[in-house]
């Protein structure tokens, strides 16, 4: 069995290679007038890499690996080294910030809220990164700030949303049907074939001249509807495959100035905006559709509120009783949790003293303020909120009673 360090090294190589490959594609998608990429696809790859790579302690190594990959890509494109380092650091810092905000503020069991956090973080952080990056380039007098800052921002927003939604949907094993029925399999396959055929016809064979504009744009919506069919029929991976297929076809022909993004009469840069709006809208539609279908299955995001369970702690004996199964309710490790010592063995080392002092103070009659702590779970850790513990007196002494509610999951081990 491979060691954790070896697996981590393989994951670094995978993300660095994927980052470089997506960057190569983006550099090939330059607008003929402004010479800027339609989308900066490595941004979404980097955000996904940070989200899926362990804890924050590994992010520094991942950051260095992605930066090295970007520098190799810029060297291939004959870009200035100093500018590549500065722009790469700004871009990757923004990607890491988006991932951190999503992990920090997303709530377990609320996928809709997570999508909204992703959108908000992407829009705001991309604007800050665009202002910093373009501001530095304009200081060097290489670009115009006002003409370029919105291009950076739009390319980064689309570049985060499309690849990140594809990757996160594909890795969402829970969103994949356990058994794909014959009808669902057939419906998804037919939708995929029709999506490819329709997208090819719209972006390769049709040019939106004045006489065809009324026909081209309605047809451009057909692949989006077919992508939705694939998402419903095949689950999260069907939606990821649909979005990837549609984006590949649309961007391939857009690079050759063909398709619905290049009608006559548009000013330089406007075809870029059309492409970004089209792909971003498709990605968001599939993301919200995934939230809907995810919530309909047992235990899905919209099916219930965050899990919670009540507990009773006896300070005199150290005994701990739960109103239910903490393993099933909170997703904790299947280990005995009948005493405080057994529970503390599963609590994050940095939170053990706080929990012990918290319950001791409540047992002595002090008000029980909410306490957030991390507890080992089957796939990493669960962050729980110890809500409003209180002491109930009795003949044998006080008993601490409270509720643990899940806040979010992550990885710390």
UniProtKB/TrEMBL annotation:
It is found in: Cell membrane. The chain crosses the membrane at residues 33-52, 84-102, 114-138, 150-170, 182-203, 215-234, 241-261, 273-292. Residues 16-262 form the MASE1 domain. It is a multi-pass membrane protein. Keywords: Cell membrane, Membrane, Transmembrane, Transmembrane helix. One of its GO terms (cellular component) is plasma membrane. Its main location: membrane. InterPro entries: MASE1. This is MASE1 domain-containing protein. It comes from Bordetella genomosp. 2.
């Amino acid at each position: 069995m491979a060691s954790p360090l070896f697996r981590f090294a393989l994951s670094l190589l995978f993300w660095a290679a994927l980052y470089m490959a997506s960057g190569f594609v983006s550099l090939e998608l330059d607008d003929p007038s402004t010479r800027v990429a339609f989308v900066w696809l490595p941004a979404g790859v980097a955000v996904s890499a940070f989200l899926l790579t362990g804890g924050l302690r590994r992010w520094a190594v991942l950051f260095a690996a992605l930066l090295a990959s970007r520098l190799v890509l810029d060297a291939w494109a004959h870009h200035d080294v100093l500018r590549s380092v500065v722009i790469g650091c700004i871009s990757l810092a923004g990607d890491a910030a988006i991932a951190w905000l999503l992990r920090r503020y997303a709530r377990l069991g609320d996928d809709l809220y997570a999508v909204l956090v992703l959108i908000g973080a992407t829009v705001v952080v991309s604007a800050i990164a665009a202002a910093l990056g373009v501001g530095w380039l304009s200081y060097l007098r290489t670009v115009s700030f006002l003409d370029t800052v919105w291009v950076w921002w739009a390319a980064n927003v689309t570049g985060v949303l499309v690849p990140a939604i594809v990757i996160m949907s594909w890795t969402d094993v829970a969103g994949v049907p356990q058994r794909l029925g014959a009808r669902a399999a057939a419906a998804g396959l037919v939708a995929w074939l029709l999506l490819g055929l329709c997208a090819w016809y719209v972006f390769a064979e049709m040019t939106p001249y004045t006489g065809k504009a009324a026909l081209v744009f309605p047809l451009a919506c057909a692949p989006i509807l077919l992508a939705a069919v694939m998402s419903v029929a095949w689950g999260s991976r069907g939606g990821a495959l649909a979005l990837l297929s549609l984006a590949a076809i649309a961007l391939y022909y857009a690079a050759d100035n063909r398709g619905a993004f290049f009608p006559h009469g548009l000013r330089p840069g406007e075809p870029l905006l059309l492409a970004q709006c089209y792909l971003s809208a498709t990605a968001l539609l599939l993301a919200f559709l995934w939230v809907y279908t995810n919530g309909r299955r047992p235990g899905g995001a919209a099916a219930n509120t965050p899990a919670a369970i009540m507990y009773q702690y006896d300070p005199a004996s150290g005994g701990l009783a739960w109103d239910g199964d903490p393993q099933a309710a909170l997703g904790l490790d299947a280990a005995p949790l009948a005493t405080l010592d057994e529970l503390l063995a599963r609590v994050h080392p940095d939170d053990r003293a706080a929990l012990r002092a918290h319950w001791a103070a409540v047992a002595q009659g002090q008000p029980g303020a909410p306490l957030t702590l991390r507890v080992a779970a089957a796939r990493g850790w669960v962050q729980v909120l110890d809500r409003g513990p209180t002491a109930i007196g009795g003949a044998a002494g006080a008993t601490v009673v409270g509720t643990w509610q899940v806040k979010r999951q992550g990885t710390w081990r």
